[in-house]
Write a structure and sequence with these properties.
With 209 residues, the chain is mainly alpha-helical. It contains six helices and no strands. The protein has one domain (23-208): CDP-alcohol phosphotransferase transmembrane (TM) domain (Four Helix Bundle (Hemerythrin (Met), subunit A)), CATH 1.20.120.1760.
């Protein structure tokens, strides 16, 4: 069973609609709402078990909303933009929370932020907004790895027999996720440059006609 691109119907093109109220978009909103709950559980309550559960639910919605969108033809233009933004904001907010709680180090947060900061600057320079690029397979793999490693790392803070195993497994997933994050960032960097230059050439040609 494939996990990336699951739900795609063979022979049928993927069409994005203008519909706003769809099940995938609702699940994306749920993922947004899980962030403040996670922050409260970690920083205010130190309830790492429940916090890991919230992360697990958030991770599952990331896969489920994509599956439903492809399987039932509910891919929307709003979801195409909102879903990756929800992923990124969730990962960053969770990382900041875990750094404050002493679970993660600052270098991890820096490794997450640097590629995104570069891509955001480039996108604003060329498009003044979102570049509207499709999510790459590497980007999807990155998100899956980080969303798997983070709950495991939270679980490793609990007094359970498998805490050390969770810690090792967490850093395997997080390490591979960070590597995929930088590879995806490089690929998006090239794609934004290419699209931005094409648009600039088109504008220059239009001005001369």
């Amino acid at each position: 069973m494939r996990f990336i691109g699951a739900g795609t119907r063979s022979g049928q093109p993927l069409i994005h609609h203008d519909t706003v109220f769809t099940v995938p978009n609702l699940l994306t909103v749920v993922r947004f709402l899980g962030v403040p709950l996670f922050i409260w559980l970690v920083l205010a309550r130190q309830e790492y078990g429940y916090a890991a559960l919230v992360l697990g639910i958030m991770s599952s919605t990331d896969w489920v909303d994509g599956y439903i969108a492809r399987r039932f033809n509910q891919m929307s233009n709003l979801g195409r933009v909102m879903d990756p933004i929800a992923d990124r904001l969730s990962l960053i907010a969770v990382a900041v929370t875990l750094v404050i709680a002493g679970v993660l180090q600052w270098w991890y947060l820096t490794a997450l932020l640097v590629p995104d900061a570069v891509l955001l600057t480039l996108s604003l320079h060329y498009f003044h907004s979102h570049p509207d690029l499709p999510v790459s397979r590497t980007g999807k793999l990155r998100t899956a790895l980080l969303l798997t490693g983070t709950p495991l790392l939270v679980l490793s803070r609990m007094p359970i027999p498998a805490a050390e195993t969770c810690f090792v497994a967490a850093w395997i997933f997080l390490g591979l996720g960070l590597l995929a994050h930088w590879i995806a960032g490089y690929n998006y960097f090239r794609a934004i440059l290419s699209k931005g230059k094409r648009l600039k050439i088109g504008d220059d040609d239009g001005g001369l006609s």
